[in-house]
Specification:
By secondary structure, the protein is α/β, with parallel strands linked by helices. Among the domains are: 1-43; 48-137 and 211-251 and 263-282, no CATH class. 39% of the residues lie in helices and 13% in strands. The protein contains 24 helices and 19 strands. The strands form two sheets. It has a 17-stranded mixed beta sheet that branches. Helix 13 (295-304) links the parallel strand 3 and strand 4 (310-314). Residues 182-198 have a biased composition (Low complexity). InterPro entries: F-box-like_dom_sf (IPR036047), F-box_dom (IPR001810), LRR_dom_sf (IPR032675). It comes from Rhizophagus clarus. This is F-box domain-containing protein.
C-alpha cells in the first residue's frame, strides 16, 4: 500500500472542502504534498473568506483592515519587477515583504472573485499603508471641484468646512494608529458616495492617480495569472454567502439615504484588461446585482465569455424621482443596458440558469433573448419584478426543458401575461414557485393541468386568490400532481376537503406549509381526525400559519395515528396552549428537532412546558405578539416590551464546552 494518497485523490478530497477555510488551512500544515495540493483551494476565494464570519462577528474595523492589507500585500508581491519599480517611482510605499518573490503563484489560484470585496480590500490596504497622504487627498479633491462644471464657483465657507472635516478625519485616523502602536496604520474607512439625482448615478472614479495605478496593476495581474476564473460577481444581495455571514465591520451597502455603495469603473473594466481572453473564457457563473450602470461590463463579457451557465442580474437604477418616476435619460440608459444584457445572453452556448431582479425597462428584448437558449435553459427566476405593461411571456413557452420556474415577490401576473405558459407542457418541470406572489387561479389551474405530473415542489402563494373565483386550485393539484413532495399554499375554509384529498392522493408529501386568514378562525379538528386515518409516514415538516383553531385531542389523534415523523413544526397565529405543547412533546419526542411558535399574547405558555420542550428539541423559538406587535405583559415600566425566546441546544453545548 502506498504511504501517501495520490495527488488526484487529494484534489478530489480538497475540492469538497473548498468552502471550509478552517479545514483547508489545517490541511496545508500536514506535509509538503498536502500543502502543495490544498493551497490552490484555500486561495480560490480569498476575498470571500476574508469577509465571512460564520458565527457572531468578533471583528473590529482595525482587525478587518489589517487582514485586508496583508492579503493585498501578497498579491502585490506577485507583480513583476517592472510594475513594482513603477509603483515605487510614483511614491507608493511598498513594505519589504512585497519586494520578495512569493512561494506560490497566489494570483493564479483565484477561481471566485467578487469585485465589491476586491475593491474593499484594496481600499483597506491603501488606508493601512497611507498610500495617499492627507495633503494629496485635499489637493486632489480641490482640483476635481475646480474642474467640475457644476461647481465653478466655490464659496469660502464651503472650502473651510471641507478642509476642517478632512483634517479632523485624518487626525482621528492618526491618533487611532498611535494607540495601536503600529506605524502607518489607519482604521478609518471610506465609503464611495453615490449621486442622488433623478439621473442614474455614474460609477465613481478613483480620486488619486496612485490608487488608479495600483488598481490597474492588480486587475492586470489577476487577468494575466488566473486562467480558470469560474465565478465573477458584484453581489449586493448576498447570493454567494450564507445569511448573516457578512462581516459586520464592512461598509454598508446602502446608506441612511438609501443610496447604494458603488465601485469604481476601473473594476467594472476588468474583462477589458490584457489577459482576459485567457482568464474569462471558462467563466461559468456571473452574478451582478448592483444598481450602477453595467453596459460596458456586459459588452466586454460578451466578447470573451461564451460558456456561462448561470446569470443573475439586477436591471434597475437608484432613482430619487417623484413616486419612482424616471427621467428620459435614465430610461434610455436602462434600454441600452437591457440590449447589452440580451447580447450577453444570446452569445452563450449553453445558458442553464437565469435570474432577473427589478426589471422595469427593456423587458421585451431580454425575454426574447432567452429564446436563443431554449434548448439549454433549466431554471428561470423573476425576483421583485413588476410585470405591468409586459408583453406575454411567449419566449418562455419555447423553453420546454425547464425544470424550475420561480416568481418571487412579483406583481402584475395577469392571465394575458401567463397565457403562453398555460398552453405549454413542460415535461421536466419539477419546481414551480409563486413565492410571495399572486397569480390568477385560472392560469395556475391550467399550468398545473398541463405540467403537473412532474412537479415535485409547488408553492401557490401566500395570498388568497380573487374572492369571486370558483376555481379550487388545490383540488387540481391533488388530481394532477401525484409526485408532489413539497407543497405550500393559501388555504381558505371552503378548501379543507380539497386539502384532505391532497394528503390522500399525494402520498410522497414530506413538507407542507399552510397559510390561512389572519382574523377569522378556521376549525380544522375534522381535518385532523380524517388525516389520522391515513399513513403519512413521509411527512417530515409541517408549517401551519394563520388563524387555525384545533383542540389538543384532535392534534394528538393526528400525530399518533398518522405516524408522521415530523422533525420541523411551526405554528403561527393559531390557538395553541400548554395542552397542545404537551401533546407535541409526547407524540414527537423521538423525531422533533425544531419547534417554532408564534402565538398571541393570550396563549402565553408557562415556564414548565417551555423547559420540557427545551430538553426535547435542538432549536426552539417562541414569540408572543399582541395586535401583530411583539410585546411583553411583564414589563414593569408600563411601556411595550418584547417576549421572544430562542434556544439552540448545539449553541449552548458548544458554549458550555468552552
Amino acid at each position: 500500500m502506498a504511504p501517501f494518497l495520490p495527488t488526484d485523490c487529494l484534489s478530489q478530497i480538497f475540492r469538497n472542502l473548498e468552502k471550509d477555510q478552517k479545514s483547508l488551512y489545517s490541511c496545508i500544515l500536514v506535509n509538503r504534498l498536502w500543502c502543495a495540493t490544498s493551497i490552490e483551494f484555500l486561495w480560490s476565494r480569498p476575498f470571500h473568506f476574508l469577509y465571512t464570519c460564520l458565527s457572531t462577528c468578533p471583528c473590529d474595523e482595525f482587525m478587518r483592515i489589517e487582514r485586508s492589507s496583508k492579503l493585498i500585500q501578497v498579491y502585490l508581491s506577485c507583480l513583476n519587477e517592472k510594475e513594482k519599480s513603477i509603483l515605487m517611482e510614483n511614491k507608493v510605499r511598498l513594505p519589504s515583504s512585497v519586494k520578495q518573490k512569493p512561494l506560490f503563484d497566489y494570483a493564479g489560484f483565484i477561481r471566485y472573485l467578487d469585485l465589491d470585496e476586491f475593491y474593499t480590500a484594496v481600499r483597506d490596504w491603501i488606508e493601512f499603508a497611507h498610500v495617499v497622504s492627507k495633503e494629496d487627498e485635499i489637493c486632489e479633491a480641490m482640483e476635481s471641484r475646480k474642474k467640475s462644471k457644476k461647481n465653478k464657483k466655490l464659496k469660502l465657507s464651503t472650502v473651510v468646512k471641507f478642509l476642517t472635516k478632512s483634517m479632523k478625519y485624518h487626525d482621528k485616523r492618526k491618533s487611532m494608529s498611535d494607540r495601536e502602536s503600529v506605524s502607518s496604520v489607519s482604521t478609518g474607512h471610506s465609503c464611495t458616495s453615490s449621486t442622488s439625482g433623478s439621473n442614474p448615478p455614474p460609477s465613481p472614479i478613483l480620486p488619486h492617480p496612485r490608487e488608479r495605478l495600483i488598481t490597474e496593476y492588480l486587475c492586470k495581474l489577476l487577468m494575466r495569472r488566473s486562467t480558470t476564473l469560474k465565478q465573477l460577481s458584484i453581489d449586493k444581495t448576498h447570493l454567494t454567502r450564507m445569511e448573516g455571514s457578512r462581516c459586520t465591520t464592512l461598509p454598508p451597502l446602502i446608506d441612511r439615504f438609501n443610496n447604494h455603495r458603488f465601485i469604481p469603473d476601473q473594476y467594472l473594466s476588468l474583462p477589458s484588461y490584457p489577459g482576459a481572453i485567457n482568464c474569462l473564457p471558462h467563466l461559468s457563473e456571473f452574478i451582478c446585482t448592483t444598481r450602477q450602470s453595467k453596459t460596458k461590463l456586459f459588452d466586454s463579457l460578451c466578447e470573451v465569455s461564451h460558456h456561462i451557465h448561470t446569470i443573475v442580474v439586477t436591471m434597475n437604477y437608484h432613482s430619487n424621482g417623484w413616486c419612482g418616476t424616471r427621467s428620459r435619460r435614465e430610461v434610455m440608459e436602462l434600454e441600452d443596458e437591457a440590449k447589452s444584457l440580451a447580447n450577453l445572453i444570446s452569445s452563450q452556448r449553453s445558458l442553464q440558469n437565469f435570474e432577473l431582479h427589478h426589471c422595469e425597462v427593456g423587458s421585451t428584448v431580454i425575454i426574447q433573448s432567452l429564446q436563443t437558449q431554449s434548448k439549454s435553459l433549466r431554471s428561470i427566476c423573476f425576483d421583485s419584478v413588476s410585470f405591468w405593461g409586459w408583453d406575454p411571456l411567449t419566449s418562455l413557452s419555447k423553453c420546454i426543458l425547464l425544470q424550475k420556474l420561480v416568481f418571487r415577490s412579483c406583481h402584475g401576473l395577469t392571465c394575458e401575461l401567463l397565457e403562453p405558459l398555460t398552453k405549454t407542457k413542460f415535461r421536466n418541470l419539477s419546481t414551480f414557485l409563486m413565492d410571495n406572489s399572486s397569480a390568477p387561479a385560472h392560469s395556475l389551474n391550467m399550468m398545473i393541468k398541463t405540467s403537473g405530473y412532474s412537479i415535485q415542489t409547488l408553492n401557490l402563494g401566500q395570498f388568497k386568490p380573487h374572492p369571486q373565483s370558483t376555481i379550487h386550485v388545490i383540488k387540481t393539484v391533488a388530481n394532477y400532481c401525484p409526485n408532489l413532495t413539497t407543497f405550500s399554499s393559501y388555504v381558505d375554509g371552503d378548501e379543507i376537503d380539497h386539502l384532505i384529498a391532497l394528503f390522500t392522493l399525494c402520498v410522497n408529501l414530506s413538507s407542507v406549509t399552510l397559510t390561512g386568514p389572519r382574523n377569522s378562525e378556521i376549525e380544522i379538528d375534522g381535518m385532523f381526525f380524517q388525516l389520522a386515518r391515513q399513513d403519512l409516514s413521509n411527512l417530515q415538516e409541517l408549517n401551519i400559519l394563520g388563524a387555525w383553531s384545533f383542540k389538543s385531542e384532535s392534534l394528538r389523534q393526528f400525530l399518533m395515528c398518522s405516524k408522521a415523523p415530523i422533525h420541523t413544526l411551526s405554528i403561527d397565529n393559531c390557538y395553541f396552549t400548554d395542552d397542545h405543547l404537551d401533546v407535541v412533546i409526547h407524540c414527537l419526542k423521538n423525531t422533533l428537532k425544531s419547534l417554532r411558535l408564534r402565538l398571541h399574547i393570550r396563549n402565553r405558555l408557562n415556564e414548565e412546558s417551555v423547559i420540557r420542550a427545551k430538553r426535547l428539541v435542538d432549536v426552539l423559538e417562541i414569540e408572543n405578539f399582541d395586535n401583530y406587535r411583539v410585546s411583553n405583559n411583564n414589563n414593569n415600566n408600563g411601556g411595550e416590551g418584547i417576549f421572544k425566546q430562542k434556544f439552540c441546544k448545539k449553541y449552548w453545548m458548544e458554549r458550555r464546552i468552552r
